[in-house]
Amino acid sequence: MKLARDTALLGWRYTLQLLRSPAWIAVGLSSPLLYLALFTPLLRGLPGVAGHSTGEVLDEFLPGILALLAFSSGIGPGFTVIFELQSGLVERLRVTPTARLALLAGPVLANVTAMFVFDAILVAVGVAFGFTVHVGLLVVAVLAGILAATVSAFSMALALSSGGEIQGFAAVMNGLNLPVLLLAGVLLPLAIGPLWLRVLGHFDPLYYLVTAARTLAEGHLATADTWHAFAVLVPLCALTTAWATRTYRTAVA
Q1: Which of 59, 116, 142, 172 is buried most deeply by CB count within 10 Å?
Q2: Angle CA(106)–CA(252)–CA(245) in degrees, nearest 5?
């Protein structure tokens, strides 16, 4: 009970911080919309896609953008932890009776909730341009929430481990961002790449979410892509959360 209450309170605190950052909201919402506006016309010229309507292209492309949003939104909490370390907030939390797991779960909850709001807006815009909504999007939301929680926990634990060194943390996250994005086939399908690139893609957790999201968005629920995504993302989320929880307990012990 105490854990749930502390998580809710900290989640609300971080939600208010997000709402007080209009620049963060603008960038977080405009980036996926720009992907849709700038890449959709390019995709219509690819072999096998040429001649398709905008709505048909979005049926393939928008689920990948939802997966990308889950990954990119998870990076933000790490920077918040850096600022809290520098301001001394983490030190002050040492003397509070707050549940240690709530210090991790609260920001993750706020971050995942914000991601769902952005997802809803993105889908609404897509529908206006012909995107077809299927019940599989609900399963996509579950998988996206698992990935966002995983990346959030990872970024927060890494930020704590860095000791508040923002340059090192930013270098690691930026270094991971590009290969994870490209190997997931978010912007361009890996099917058009060479065999070695397609093999490497299977070592990218985001790849499984992208693949499953595209299948689910077409209305196909019980497919191998969906089970593969759960089989990869759920254990990864459990391992990352366990590491992050241990890191937080050590930091505020």
Answers
A1: 59
A2: 50
Q: Residue 248 in contact with residue 100, Cβ under 8 Å? A: yes
Determine the Cα–Cα distance for residues 43 and 26; give it in Å rounded to an integer.
25
Say if residues 111 and 186 touch (Cβ distance below 8 Å).
no
What does the alpha-carbon distance between residue 214 and residue 206 come to, in Å, rounded to a whole number? 12
Torsion of CA 109, 110, 116, 117, to 10 degrees: 160
Record the tokens describing residue 47, joined without a space. Answer: 């072999």
- Nearby residues of 23 by Cβ (< 8 Å), 6 or more positions away: none
Among 190, 152, 200, 197, residue whose Cα is nearest residue 173: 152
Which residue, 141, 135, 126, is CA-closest to 58?
126
Asked if the model's pLDDT at residue 46 lies above 70, the reply is: no
Q: How far apart are CA 96 and CA 93, in angstroms?
A: 5
What does the block give as tokens for 130?
């012909």
Residues in Cβ contact with 253 at an 8 Å cutoff, skipping those fewer than 6 apart: 94, 100
What CA–CA distance (Å, rounded) separates 187 from 175?
18
pLDDT tens for residues 117-168?
999 999 998 888 888 888 889 999 999 999 999 999 999 989 888 877 788 8
Distances (CA, A) of 102 to 5, 61, 126, 144: 9, 36, 35, 21
User: For the whole model, what pTM was predicted?
Assistant: 0.88
Share of the chain above pLDDT 90, in %: 26
Question: At residue 50, does pLDDT exceed 50?
Answer: no
As given in the structure block, the two tokens for residue 125 are 């815009």
